[in-house]
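Checklist before submission:
- one chain only
- standard amino acids only
- sequence pasted in full

Submission:
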Amino acid sequence: MNRRPGGEMATRPLHFIWIADCSGSMGIDGKIQALNNAIREAIPHMQEVADENPNAQVLVRALRFSTGAQWHITQPTPINDFKWENLEADGVTDLGRALHMVAEQLRIPPMTDRALPPVLVLISDGQPTDDFNAGLKALLKEPWGKKAVRVAIAIGEDADHEILQKFIGNPEFQPLQANNPEALKNKIKWTSTVVLKAASAPTSQTEESQTSGNVPIPQAHDTGSEVISAGDIW
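Returned file contents:
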């Protein structure tokens, strides 16, 4: 086990939070089921990444937002114990409320000052129906909200890229686009592995890196396997 610079050998918590759009439009064309499948398939890969870095304790949970927002998986759960519960789609897109709720959980306490930068993954297929800017302001007001690695996945052509870009907060790091189930699976896997690995070792530097928060992460590359029939495009 490697000793971290300036610190002793100790496990540091790394909070990984899925922020999932569950509005009614996510129920169209199988989007919500594709999201459920993609996250479920990503769990073993997340477990492998966590096992490779015993100095980081990866804790996962999920927040759903539609009409209002609710913690879908309430407790920060060690990744080796994490099980995905299916999301269902209905209602509008209260993303602002969701960000307020995330901000509440990134305060100290319940967070500690010795944690690793949290990873926040926002997944959406539409536009906010409440005050997104107020929610983002609340999130960035918290030190761990500002330092978090913020990643966004746009599902389909109707996703609001401007809003997702504001959430990321870095013009050099673009929202990941998923226009079909295979693309969504690939983006979820990339976020669950490459981004998680970077956040669990924030002092590491790689070529072709972009910075989100204070953690350098590699570029995401599209794969040819995402090109499928037009009938499967969102």
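Reviewer check: The longest helix spans residues 31-52.
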